Amino acid sequence: MKNYAPLLLLIAAFSACRKDRPQEPEEPNSVGGAHGVYILNEGNFNWGNAGVSYFDKQTGTVVEDLFEPANGMALGDVLQSMEIDDGKGYLVLNNSGKVVEVDTAGFTVTATINGLTSPRYLLPVGQGKAYVTDLYANAISIVDLDAHTVTGSIPCPGWTEELVLAQGKAFVTNKNRPFVYVVDTASDQLVDSIAVSRGGNSIVEDAQGKLWVACTGGAGTPPALFRMDPTSLQVEASFPFSSSSASPWRLITSADRTALLFLNEGVYRMAIADGALPGIPLIPADGRNFYGLGVDPADGTVYVSDAIDYAQRGRVFRFQADGTALDDFLAGRIPCGFVFR
User: Fold this and answer.
1) How much is the pLDDT for 35?
2) I need a surface site. Which of 47, 146, 201, 239 has the fewest CB within 10 A?
3) DSSP code string of 97-109
4) What is the pTM of this model?
5) Which CATH class is domain 115-272?
6) Exposed/middle/buried for 81, CB within 10 Å: 0-12, 13-18, 19+?
């Protein structure tokens, strides 16, 4: 009988010395912990290749996709957004017309909410109740998160997009109407609208309880940021861009909510007390195709994604709050957003 021991020892020694293996855990132990970042990978339209990457802040390791390995199936087509509520993650799949509920501890599917036309963003608005905006439905869907069903709808014309909860009301942006719509969450009725520019795409609440919306403009309305009072339902200040080609979007707040950050090719930062728009970017694009933006509420680290050519895997860049570069890493295809744990 041949003695294979020397050969086996040689193979083992060679394998132990390899340096080209990815330093990524097969099963991230901190998926449900407090030290990770979910990176939402939109995927290509009609390709069904959406996914969720995971960055462990403590170890610096990255998992390209959590969903398919945990569930043995693809997530779906075009991951638009994700919301976490009561230990559950709600993944909004735009072209698949559904919301997938996962247990954030292991990222396994616990339910699917169907019956949606082209969902965009989900916002919990009460015990077991959420609103879901939509591209084509001309309505905001009312969803029972416990029963995982669509229970009704709120008529609202046009492409409804991001929404935020304040003063017992949901404030809803609209991409092709020059209004922010106001919904009473107790009655599920549209009760008012606030005139802004067309192209409303993102909305946030600042440290003073004021609401800010970013609009890309169009049809005679300029690209602009607007500050609104959620009690009086009035616009308090508007900040129009001098160039009609400006396209402010992905509006978010700093960790302490005293400043705004948004994309307009580069990343811009504006204190909520400023009287004018910022003139230069905090983080220049420098030829990169910036597509997603997030701020870690724990330490203020800025995350920016580069979609590159929308075909290959995208890259995520991390910066200190002052714009100083930290590091970067690969995610999935078309990384569009971040959810922090």
Assistant:
1) 82
2) 146
3) TEEEEEETTTTEE
4) 0.90
5) mainly beta
6) buried
